[in-house]
Every structure is written in C-alpha cells, then in structure tokens.
C-alpha cells in the first residue's frame, strides 16, 4: 500500500489579539490508499484545523508556518492557489457536520452536482444528468430523477448529509475528508450514513480521513486511529489494537471513561476527564498531558516524549514506553 496523504511536521497557528495559538504543532501522519483513518480528540485539540490546513481553507486568522502536506508526490503547501482550486473537490473532497456549509440553498441538486461534473470532467446535458442520477442512487437517495430537481431545504437532515456526500463523490476524489460527518444526526440516521461511507469506501477503495470526537464512530468504520491532544498526535494504532489495548495514558483515560465493556458501540462520546487541555499559546517544555496525567514524574515536565513503536503497528508518544521499545509493557506499570 502506498500513502495517499503524507503530513510531515505540520505547524499551523491562529493569530489572536493576545498571542498566536499553535493549533497544530508538529503533526506527522500518513494515510494509506484505501484506508479509513480516524483522527480522534476532544474539541479544540486541532483536528479540524489539521483538515483545513490540508485543504488550505483556513480562516483568515490561520496560517501554516511549517511542514509539508503531500498528496501523492505533490506538496500542497507549495502550490499556487489556482492549482489548489483544481485539487479541491476533485482530488480531495471534504464533508462537514453541517451540510449547509457545502450546499447552496438556492440551487437544485442537479445544478450543484452538475457544476462539479462540468468543472472537473467537462460533462454537460444528458450525459451529466445520467451521471447525477447514478451518484444520487449510489448514496441511497430514492427516486433520483425527481429529487435532483429539488432544493436542499426539501431534504431531511439525513438526506442532506447524503447529498453532501454525493457532491463530494462527484469529483471522484482520491481522498475524502469527513469532519464530524454524523455528529448532528440522530443515532439511526448516523448508523445509515456510516454504513454508506463504509460501503463506498469498500467498493471504490476510497481513502478517508475521518475527524471525530466520537470513539464509537471511529470503532465503527476506521482501520486505524490517531489520538490527538493539544495540537499533536500522541498515539496511532490499528483500530482493534487500540480498542483492545490503548497505550498512552490519555487514550487509556478516554477509553476507561466509557460505560460498559462493549466500547465498540455508537454514540460513545469522549467523556470529560479531569483537568483542562493546556492553552495552546503556552510554551511547552515537557509532555503536554503532564498536568492531567496520573503517571507523570519529573522527566515528563522537563522533556517532550518522542515516539516509541510498540508491538504491531501501535506507536505512542510517552516516556513510560520509550525505555522499553518493542514491548507492550510500559517501563512504569499502570495501576489503572
Ligand atoms: Fe504521562 Fe509522562 Fe507519559 Fe506524558 S510522558 S503521558 S506525563 S507518563
Ligand atoms: Mg472540529
């Protein structure tokens, strides 16, 4: 498998009146072709800023100050905006929690998807209409030939979400970025939308970067997960290894806070754990989790931990492990 997306040492800051905030701070990540990678974390940890940095759609106050974002061989951060525009919606599509961010309320479904087909494939007229019907059918919108003439407000919440996915798929992207795609939906519709994403992914081998704060959603459709904390990733692992044996103390706390033994259910939001995420305007000398970690010792407050590879493909950024690589047994035993 080759990587579709390679993010290396990405640094994104947000300029605020007081001081710059390091929203994404040295993030490194590879996503393989055909893989669904879930970037998990509490709100404000930098997940969405990572996605917007990849798309180069940061808010005005945002600025990428370092690193690279490679899609195949191309470094997206070096491209002129015109080249980037032809990549968005074609090679990378993005869907959001709120469908109306991507849907135009005053255009019919046919016109909106038609615009994507025209821009990226030069499809017009009957050929385009046929393709629009196919795409709507693929995402499970019933009676496509009638519904394509309707406006977004005529669709229910779940159907709007499907329509947004249809728009995203119209460009046949190599990478789909889905930022909390099911958060606003009720549990039944959420399950349907996740099923849809999974089946599209299986059928087309699409690569998906899923951004979520919901462990249940990640457990449902991700192949691998990355846990983000205070602007950086602290653990990556294949899904099953992660849910069986999370390594980083933060990951362990997140999973321990879930009710019941069956963690692979939907609707399992990240429960609050004690203490606050440190302000990202602060200079960090040691581990960012040290103030909230039950296992912290002096070293943790002084030196930032590097990556340690555990058994399998699990990787963790924590001093507990880095004197004992290749093992699942941390140097200092967990009491929890
Ligand atoms: Fe806790 Fe130290 Fe590991 Fe950070 S490096 S998570 S403070 S044990
Ligand atoms: Mg977000």
TrEMBL record:
GO terms for molecular function: ATP binding; ATP hydrolysis activity. It is found in: Cell inner membrane. Residues 5-255 form the ABC transporter domain. Its main location: membrane. It comes from the Bacteria. The keyword Cell membrane applies. GO terms for cellular component: plasma membrane. Transmembrane segments: none annotated. Keywords: ATP-binding, Cell membrane, Membrane, Nucleotide-binding, Transport. The keyword ATP-binding applies. One of its GO terms (biological process) is transmembrane transport. Coiled coil: none annotated. Belongs to the ABC transporter superfamily. This is Peptide/nickel transport system ATP-binding protein. It comes from Nitrosospira briensis. The chain holds residues 1 to 336 of 711 of the full protein.
């Amino acid at each position: 498998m080759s990587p579709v997306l390679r993010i290396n040492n990405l640094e994104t800051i947000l300029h605020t009146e007081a001081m710059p905030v390091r929203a994404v701070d040295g993030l490194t990540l590879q996503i393989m072709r055909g893989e669904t990678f879930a970037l998990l974390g509490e709100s404000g940890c930098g997940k969405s800023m990572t996605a917007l940095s990849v798309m180069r759609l940061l808010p005005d106050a945002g600025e990428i100050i370092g690193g690279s974002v490679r899609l195949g061989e191309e470094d997206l951060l070096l491209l002129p905006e015109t080249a980037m525009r032809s990549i968005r919606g074609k090679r990378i599509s993005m869907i959001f929690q709120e469908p109306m961010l991507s849907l135009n309320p005053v255009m019919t479904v046919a016109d909106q998807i038609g615009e994507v087909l025209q821009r990226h494939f030069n499809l017009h007229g009957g050929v385009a209409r046929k393709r629009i019907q196919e795409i709507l059918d693929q995402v499970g919108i019933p009676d496509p030939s009638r519904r394509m003439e309707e406006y977004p407000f005529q669709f229910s919440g779940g159907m709007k979400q499907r329509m947004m996915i249809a728009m995203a798929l119209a460009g046949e992207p190599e990478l789909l970025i889905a930022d909390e795609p099911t958060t606003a939906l009720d549990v039944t519709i959420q399950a349907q939308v996740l099923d849809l994403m999974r089946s599209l992914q299986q059928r087309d081998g699409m690569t998906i970067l899923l951004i979520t704060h919901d462990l249940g959603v990640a457990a449902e459709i991700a192949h691998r997960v990355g846990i983000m904390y205070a602007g950086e990733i602290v653990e990556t692992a294949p899904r099953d290894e992660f849910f069986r044996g999370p390594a980083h103390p933060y990951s362990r706390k997140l999973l321990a806070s879930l009710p019941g033994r069956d963690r692979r259910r939907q609707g399992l939001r990240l429960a609050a754990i004690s203490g606050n995420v440190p302000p990202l305007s602060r200079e960090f000398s040691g581990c960012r989790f040290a103030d909230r970690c039950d296992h912290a010792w002096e070293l943790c407050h002084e030196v930032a931990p590097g990556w340690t590879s555990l058994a399998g493909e699990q990787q963790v950024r924590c001093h507990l492990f880095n004197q004992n690589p290749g093992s699942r047994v941390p140097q200092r035993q967990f009491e929890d």
